[in-house]
Amino acid sequence: MHANSYAQILERIRVALEASRTVFAGFTPGAVQTEYKAGDDPVTKADRALDAVLRKELLREGEGWLSEESADDPVRLQCSHVWVVDPLDGTREFVTGIPEFCVSIGFVENSRPVAGGIYNPETDETFLGSISSGVTYNGKPSQPSRRKSLTGALVLASRSEVKRGEWKPFENAGFQIRPMGSVAYKLALVSAGLADATFTLTPKHEWDVVAGAALVLSAGGFVSTLEKTDLTANRHDPLLSGLVASGPFLKDELLALVKSRIEVAEKI
User: In a 3-state reduction of DSSP, which class is residue 58?
Assistant: First the structure.
């Protein structure tokens, strides 16, 4: 796919995000009937309704589909173009009425995240971008943080990881830690320079992070797995060990920090 054709992909993402707005209008965050999947993960009618709408708006013949709310079809592994979608990332926050949930749409070309769109209906924020166009935040061009040191930085943390005490080693590291739901939303905020960095120390699925990673990369930011490798997507096993993302100048300091934390955890 030529770079200029990402414009068509972005338009499809924009239309799908707009369609999701209509779905959300039928639900009230904090007053939603909830079921639970294996592993105590909540799921609602909104998750399933959004999945159906996104599939209808996005998927074309010859493209693959990987979504948290769809049965995985291995045919996607033979596709060079794949949609990686979390119809409602941050369902726990949605169920409890915390405004940190979003629709997350990622587009993958030859295993590389190249375009994405994320929409938070409660804050009315839309993040949209591709590697050929850069990223817009609510329709205006944006870029990630230019900060060169973690000292004084705003780092977004997983609310559940903080609750479990996994961020205690960073409490005196010289940066501000802000617990937040939805890893996709956190990555989107980093892509637009609304936070300096984020990382997760626990495994995440591709549908959690591909759209946000595409946005950070499209904006000129930095994304890495915990193993210090580039994020590749549409793998047979979509589970990742974790992810690190920031503005371009925090790469080395951030990787060193996370590496030291992992080494300490392995010794315990």
Answer: helix
